[in-house]
């Protein structure tokens, strides 16, 4: 609405946030693929039967009423607690919304951006000044007060050398940040940006204590419903209920995030009552083990596009666009998904999931056509070309890698699979050094197309001038222009065979039948633990 002073004002009541399962198999599947949010508008979901982006399986009991522990099973353990300098989704999955909070967040039931540590905000008519009113009386878990000075410090710090991961670029549009008083923060942008407010819902919007950032890798001090308790490396991370939390206290006193080496170990832990929740099923064919038993199974969608990346740097075989097109034609995506992920998931053909407003089905751009693949390979004189498929040691990548290898060899290429330990080896070899021809990884952050394909320096090696222009026009334009430009960008990326998009990962969870607050869809970076309870 518009106030009399000409300011655009957004005021919404704070809802009880739905818990998010930002899956363990995705934790690190992004491998630092930044959350470059392409806009700040709502996320109407139109997949997996959840039109609004995800519904809880049941209403949770009264919060804060138990001294129980909930045990959550995952696979990809964080490499560090510091998501400002360490890539991978496992850290925000654990800490965002649970230990660290943001000024605003996404309500997964409506897709709206809603208040968190900010109770309201105003946007100037020219869309370059945001004035946030902060909740009063909030404290960090070390007892210090959260004020606008902390908020200004946190946002300024993203653009400093303290943040080193690529997704820090989401806040490049910020020109200045000022703490007007203890509960008022003013952020000035260099230009209008559709993505700015949405970016604040991600890890770049996390609020830090000005006096507690010296050891972020091992210590997490935030304002959230849980506090970091301890880390038994290789086994589990424990969170405890924050006794001074400013909002509704969570139901569970303790959360144990337990990490397992493989899918079988994770399943066995659930079957033997060693854990209460499988945050994501690592072998979808194993769901039969739980069907008909004393378990609940949740199935929905995610933001996790499983991407077959292709190194297009000069001198590499896949710098040839004809050879990249051949790769896309050579892959039977339905057969691949049926084989390596038990047919669970969705074929989308691009870097845009159906829960984004600019989604279009692009599976028709490169339908399975082995004869066309062979023709392109022959015309390029590339028969027998050797390609190094370097994949992370994550279940979906390992399962799908052998299928990709077989299909590309059927088309006349030679493929060598290297399985790299995740996260460290994969991040160094593929993500940082770009020493690969192809890789397979799931980019799980919301609205990350611009970050993944907007820079030639990113590991995907694309980032043409044309695509950068489209992303900038989408960010600065009207809502209608934004949707149109991002649809155009997705089409250009697909048609240029900048990568192949194998399928969209499903959200598959298994839990005790009385666990409530489990989401249908996982469309945020965090696994929001605050709404989990026992009914």
TrEMBL record:
GO BP: peptide transport
Listed SUPFAM superfamilies: Periplasmic binding protein-like II
Solute-binding protein family domain mapped to chain residues: 112-444
GO molecular function annotations of the record: peptide transmembrane transporter activity
Keyword set includes Transport: yes
Cleavable signal peptide: 1-33
Biased composition (Low complexity): 43-62
GO cellular component, one term: periplasmic space
Pfam families in alphabetical order: SBP_bac_5 (PF00496)
Keyword Ligase (UniProt): no
Region of interest: Disordered: 30-68
UniProt keyword terms in alphabetical order: Signal, Transport
Transmembrane segments: none
InterPro entries: Peptide/Ni-bd, SBP_5, SBP_5_dom
Family according to the record: Belongs to the bacterial solute-binding protein 5 family.
Protein name as it appears in the record: Oligopeptide ABC transporter, periplasmic oligopeptide-binding protein OppA
Organism: Serinicoccus hydrothermalis
């Amino acid at each position: 609405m518009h106030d009399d002073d000409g300011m655009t004002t957004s005021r919404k009541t704070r809802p009880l946030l739905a818990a998010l399962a930002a899956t363990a198999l995705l934790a690190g599947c992004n491998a630092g693929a930044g959350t470059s949010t392409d806009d700040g508008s709502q996320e109407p979901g139109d997949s997996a039967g959840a039109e609004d982006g995800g519904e809880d399986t049941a209403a949770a009991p009264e919060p804060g009423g138990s001294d129980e522990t909930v045990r959550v099973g995952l696979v990809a353990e964080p490499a560090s607690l510091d998501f400002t300098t360490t890539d991978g989704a496992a850290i925000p999955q654990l800490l965002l919304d649970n230990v660290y909070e943001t000024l605003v967040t996404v309500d997964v039931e409506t897709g709206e951006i809603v208040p968190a540590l900010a109770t309201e905000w105003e946007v100037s008519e020219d869309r370059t000044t945001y004035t946030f009113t902060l909740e009063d009386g909030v404290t960090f878990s070390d007892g210090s007060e959260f004020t606008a000075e902390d908020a200004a410090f946190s946002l300024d710090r993203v653009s400093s050398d303290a943040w080193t991961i690529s997704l820090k670029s989401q806040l490049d549009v910020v020109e200045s940040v000022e703490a007007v008083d203890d509960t008022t923060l003013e952020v000035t942008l260099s230009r209008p940006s559709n993505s700015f407010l949405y970016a604040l819902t991600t890890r770049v919007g996390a609020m830090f204590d000005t006096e507690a950032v010296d050891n972020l890798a091992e210590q997490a001090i935030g304002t959230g419903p849980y506090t970091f308790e301890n880390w038994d490396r290789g086994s589990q991370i424990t969170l405890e209920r924050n006794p001074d939390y400013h909002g509704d206290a969570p139901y569970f006193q303790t959360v144990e995030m337990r990490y397992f080496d493989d899918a079988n170990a994770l399943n066995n832990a659930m079957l033997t009552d060693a854990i209460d929740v499988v945050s994501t099923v690592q072998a979808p064919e194993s769901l039969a083990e739980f069907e008909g038993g004393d378990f609940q199974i949740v199935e929905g969608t995610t933001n996790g596009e499983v991407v077959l990346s292709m190194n297009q740097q000069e001198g590499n075989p896949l710098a040839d666009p004809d050879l990249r097109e051949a790769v896309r034609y050579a892959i039977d995506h339905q057969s691949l998904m049926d084989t390596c992920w038990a047919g669970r998931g969705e074929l989308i053909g691009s870097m845009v999931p159906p829960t984004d407003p600019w989604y279009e089905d692009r599976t028709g751009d490169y339908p399975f056509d082995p004869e066309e693949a062979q023709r392109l390979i022959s015309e390029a004189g590339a028969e027998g070309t050797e390609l190094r498929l370097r994949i992370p040691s994550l279940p979906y990548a390992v399962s799908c890698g052998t299928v990709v290898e077989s299909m590309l060899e059927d088309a006349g290429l030679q493929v060598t699979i290297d399985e790299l330990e995740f996260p460290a080896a994969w991040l160094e070899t593929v993500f940082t050094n770009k020493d690969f021809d192809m890789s397979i990884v799931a980019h799980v952050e919301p609205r990350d197309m611009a970050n993944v394909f907007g820079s030639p320096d990113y590991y995907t090696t694309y980032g043409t001038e044309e695509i950068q222009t489209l992303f900038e026009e989408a960010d600065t334009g009207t809502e209608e222009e934004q949707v149109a430009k991002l649809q155009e960008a997705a089409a250009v990326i697909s048609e240029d065979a900048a990568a192949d998009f194998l399928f969209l990962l499903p959200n598959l969870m298994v839990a005790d039948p009385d666990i409530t607050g489990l989401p249908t869809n996982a469309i945020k970076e965090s696994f929001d633990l605050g709404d989990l309870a026992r009914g």
